[in-house]
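ping. complex inputs:
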Amino acid sequence: MKVRDLNEDRLLKILLTGLPEGRNVVTGPGDDCAVVQAAQGSREFLLLKADCVVEGIHYLPEHDPVRVGWKALCRAVSDVAAMGGEPLHALVTIFSPVDRSVSYWKGFYKGLSKAAKRFGIGIVGGETSRAPCAAVSVTLVGRVEAGRLITRAAGKPGDLLFVTGTLGGSIQGKHLDFVPRVAEGRWLSAHGYAHAMMDLSDGLASDLPRLATASGCGFELDPDLLPRTRGCNANEAMSDGEDYELLIAVPPRLADRLRRGWKETFPRLRLTEIGTLREPGISATALPQGFDHFFSCQQPRERAS
Amino acid sequence: MKVRDLNEDRLLKILLTGLPEGRNVVTGPGDDCAVVQAAQGSREFLLLKADCVVEGIHYLPEHDPVRVGWKALCRAVSDVAAMGGEPLHALVTIFSPVDRSVSYWKGFYKGLSKAAKRFGIGIVGGETSRAPCAAVSVTLVGRVEAGRLITRAAGKPGDLLFVTGTLGGSIQGKHLDFVPRVAEGRWLSAHGYAHAMMDLSDGLASDLPRLATASGCGFELDPDLLPRTRGCNANEAMSDGEDYELLIAVPPRLADRLRRGWKETFPRLRLTEIGTLREPGISATALPQGFDHFFSCQQPRERAS
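pong. complex structure:
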């Protein structure tokens, strides 16, 4: 069996089975970030996220390296945001062909630095290695108060599903320029509005089933309600991927308060109800296939509309 | 200017200059690990280390993947050990060509898992991406009590320099099977024997000047005192690299106590005095060139002896 015969979820399941359990681990692999105790007696958790971008897969050689640097860090920031936390420290490993110009990587670090400043992150470690291909690995350490942690796993049947922003068409540019929803995630975690949350990186069609499964729920989705990026149809909104928006499961009794508070606090960002978590086994919506970073190359696709 | 025109230290210096300062950072890039506050009010520090191995550079395609997995994690463990800390959590990102067998990566994870168990580490996160080349990035989070942190930077003129084990010839096999000096580092940090410490990954010839520079010192080294691996000459002991032994700067008044305690506690591991830290500007030993991971491919070399 070759790596090409499996998608990322199946490959990881094979590799991660039977690994040693760590000490002080709250949530291991499988959520947006790993969650561990910050220190003995502390009421804070650390959020740990490793992520990578590979040239030709997550970005193309002709993309502006400043935008690539922004993306490389912001992908991980989005995962920290999705757990209600704030990002703190980043470690960056660059894999570079030896014939790559130093100015390319200076551009990359400019984008990285811009994102770090924007979100109050310190870049505390850097490694480089020559390599036959160009890629970057980013590790982000964040924090969240123990009482404000939001995982994928605590959704309940009946919870209303919301998404931020609009979905689909990220390849037109948003996948390099998106703004991770840190302020929104912190606000949601401060008010306790969310039972469960995750960021949409592979498209709703892949990610919603992940949240529902982690919560032991089914789901119902109304494709007509999806907030679509201009020019995208419902299928594209569900499966293009790289939206980096939040998917939120909200207990019905809090929904009205959430809607009102959101409008006041984030007047420029849409928050849209798109469906409901159901009893396990019930998934009343046929979903198209999401975006699998492991196999899909990020190239503009022909529109089906 | 291309990446091939610079060594890793110079490239990192260019890239890391002017980056945003983080919050709660004790020691940023430049030591074995970054050191940050674990949590508000905590007397613990977190040790953060990102590291990578690239196929064809740090290991070869024909190497046993179990040994490669061991090496990938233990390299970072060695850095945590060198600061007097203990490793806790690891995140692993695999870059894989699609035609690589899944069993190869299962072997790799077997080695990783063996190392994790040996050192009490939880593997809390895993990512995979297809890539044109095979490589692995590992992030390790460790901890150290605030009073037990040992950096590279606090050595003083007059400190005696010690190394553990023997140096040179790692390419014969040790570079895949070495045992990071965690117990030794913890013991040294518990007793306060070391002013400064680092692990020898690029060879004494590269690493000793780094420790001396970080401490604002010069140094003196007696090549005849070097504990050489059988079959290696002094030049090879200084420059082969990948020893993963500890280099320790010890105040002279503690040296006798250190020697006695070491013999009792680690009777099977050599501890050898090799030189002295001096006033800045004094470096009384001409050093051969160390091992630069960035350019040197790990291939058995012709022996100069």
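DSSP finds eight helices and eleven strands in chain B.
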